[in-house]
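W.,

You were right to be curious about this one. When I first looked at the sequence I had no strong expectations either way, so I just let the prediction run and decided to look at it fresh. Below is the sequence, 421 residues in total, followed by the output.
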Amino acid sequence: MSIIWILISFTYLSYLHGACIIFILSIASVNFLLVKIFARTKYFSFVFWIFNIFFLLCNRVYEGYSFSMIGQRWAYLDNFRGTFRWHICFNFVVLRMISFGYDYHWAHRDSRFDHKKHIQRCDICKSGKTCYQSLQERGVQNDKFSFMTYLSYLVYAPLYLAGPILDVPQNNLSARDIAWYGLRWVFSLLLMELMTHLFYYNAFAISGMWKELHPMDVFIIGYGVLIFMWLKFFLIWRYFRFWSLICGIEVPENMPRCINNCYNLETFWKNWHASYNKWLVRYLYIPLGGTRRKLLNVWVVFTFVAIWHDLEWKLLSWAWLTCLFFIPEMILKSALNAFQVESTHGEFVVRELSAVAGAITITCLMVANLVGFVIGPSGISWLISQFLNREGLPVLAGMLLTFYVGTKLMFHIRDAKQSSS
């Protein structure tokens, strides 16, 4: 079966990238050799990360390279580069190369994962089968590390371009479930078309017209851009997941919760690009020390996320702003947990403080995304000046009040789900 999928996938890649498939195969093959050579040594992590980050950066710096760099006799191949820039979607391949390497490394050394104790159930899974929460921390069998399996994993066609980062597959959904999933995707696409034609958030953001607007308008545009981005990625990721489901492979849902039902940063990032979050937890966050070094680890993780997306200062600004906003949230969570334990009458106070924290978090999330994807780091001072003047302060207060009420509504929705389950 893997041979068939490799042929299908490479036919697909040949259409997308033409002769540039040579670059993909070359980098992937060298990565495989490095894994086999260094996996049992103490230098593995150092060599492995250097190699993958080096090509992650070089692919962008040299714009996917050109065959003329190898020699003029190969320059004619630059006329057959396909229909899609290979180095853009190669970022997903890099993640899979790293996950394959570390799974092989852990399978042949003392693993930090106990392969048996993590068989558990969670409220996400209703089928009674092993859930992704447990699969995230399980090891991989030794017979899953052949070169053919490796290639099948890297270039699996339905998930190659922008699909979820492939985890251990399951097969829980019926044909009716898959058909309904596809129909919901069509409804979401129609919603996107409606938003594109009736609302002009992105036009204001891209043109720079937001600089001429009232703070209330800037707030509406910022929130609208965030909603639009969520729906855009929702459609992209669910399309490729739907394709994978039709082919009989189930992978983690990348957008399991609506953005308007996330009232803290941790919940938001677990539900924005969920499969990427699982990857980061397993292959970066836990090896760095997990919760024991949480305040330090978030800086490393989000810096990697920014570099993985692209080499831009505004993305690094977005990443570091997110880390700054993460720190008070983590401190507040610890304080609220301590207060809840020590006070028998503190449930109401904790709930109110959580709602206030949720309002502040959503505001910070908007600011971070505006800086990262719209106004850039140079616009931070302008944004602050707009909201900290006589016209902007009432808008800021109204915005926080709106998010406070919205967070309380999210609490009620969460309680209703818990009581019904």
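Here's what jumped out at me. The radius of gyration is 23 Å. And, maybe more interesting for your project: Residues 111-124 have pLDDT under 50 and may be disordered.

Coffee later to discuss?

I.
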